[in-house]
Amino acid sequence: WTQSGGNTWLAIGLKNSTKIKAVVLKTHYWDRKTIKSAKIWASQDGGTTYVEQGDVSFTDETKTAIVSFKTPININSVKITNFIGYESWIDIHEIQMIGE
User: Fold this and answer.
1) DSSP characters for 17-70?
2) pTM for this model (two decimals)
3) Coil, helix or strand for 91?
4) pLDDT (tens digit, 9 = 90+) per residue, 20-53?
């Protein structure tokens, strides 16, 4: 979990570079501890540098937040920042990367 509006970020490193087409975030929805918005970044150098991929937003009913890339990208790390929630806290209990 993370505080909504805090300076928390989450980085997910991959063992090998992989062509990713989506990132899936599953949230704790029964207490409205869901994600309202976040910013997504991607890295091709193991997290030394990140390139902003854009902002995503979701409804308060979103239990599974899916971030799809318009074109699959070859990366080895994803970072999520600027977490904003519908309540004071956001509870992410599962993250999944969808490869091409």
Assistant:
1) EEEEEEEEEEEBTTTTB-EEEEEEEEESSTTSS-EEEEEEE--TT-SEEEEEEE
2) 0.85
3) coil
4) 999 988 887 667 788 889 999 999 999 999 999 9
